[in-house]
């Protein structure tokens, strides 16, 4: 039975271990750059962001999710996956599909959308957009995107767009979860292994050993919780005192010598005790010999 439990525990450990890399991997719309962690998920909005180009064209976009606004006469294969578009008289012009893979270039998060509508002046090319997010702590809200360039420059043939977005959301932070996230994963693994041990052990004792009641619950062959607490508390005290000896932990040699008395003190006490066995018996009554003819009551009888 013990070998079976070990086998089940190993299986659970490897199964959960295979899930850990996916848990630790970057979530959508996040990126790492050294010790910096970027998360643009707060910019996902239930209402699209709308801004105007310098020439007056109306742009509608969203971040890491498709736009929620209705589109009109958009010639793309997947109109429901469009990340943004331009309102034009002959139909909306897609500037790329939704992308959740965030890049970091020169300390700035970058989101690129591709495979938009077909370029007006190139039949084998489609529109694309690069959105660079700039950290700006003075912007308390989500901020607003701004078109800084487009190629070709004229609106009728433009097919590549460059957008800047100033927002505090683009500022780097410590990675969410950090050591706590790893601790949660470890606790989840240990909890799953423990529950597997309890379930398999209960099944074995109930259907194989035919036990009932509390006898069918497996008992862990380890120290109790109170023993573990006492062990770790004693271990921490030893580390704090800087001594692994018993008795007066942390006491200096000078203090120990004072507690023991001056040199030879104990030897002198032992010699005095051997010479006078009656010495030191305080509180014991002393007796004197009675004169002849005196009884125990102190009466002299002639």
Word description of this protein:
A hairpin with a 5-residue loop joins strand 3 and strand 4 (58-61). By secondary structure, the chain is an alpha+beta fold. The longest helix is centred in the middle third of the chain and has 30 residues, at 178-207. The chain has a 5-stranded mixed beta sheet, with no helix packed on it. It is elongated, with a radius of gyration of 42 Å. 29% of the residues lie in helices and 18% in strands. Among the domains are: 30-174, Mannose-6-phosphate receptor binding domain (Cation-dependent Mannose-6-phosphate Receptor, Chain A); 177-236, no CATH class.
Q: How many DSSP-defined strands? A: 11
CATH fold group of the domain at 30-174: Cation-dependent Mannose-6-phosphate Receptor, Chain A
The CATH homologous superfamily name of the domain at 30-174 equals Mannose-6-phosphate receptor binding domain
Query: What is the straight-line distance between the termini?
Result: 96 Å
Question: Topology as H/E string?
Answer: HEEEEEEEEEEEHHHH
Unreliable segments of 5+ consecutive residues: 1-16, 18-25, 243-252
Protein name: Autophagy-related protein 27
Domain MRH: 27-173
Biased composition (Basic and acidic residues): 272-284
Transmembrane segments: 180-204
What is the strand and helix layout of this fold?
Layout lengths: L1 H23 L5 E4 L2 E4 L9 E4 L5 E4 L22 E3 L6 E2 L8 E3 L2 E6 L14 E8 L8 E8 L8 E8 L10 H30 L17 H17 L11 H8 L4 H11 L27
Parallel strand pairs: 9-11
Antiparallel strand pairs: 1-2, 3-4, 4-5, 5-6, 7-8, 8-9, 10-11
Helix pairs in contact: 1-2
Provide a short characterization of the protein structure:
It is a single-pass type I membrane protein; Single-pass membrane protein. The chain is α+β, with helices and mostly antiparallel strands.
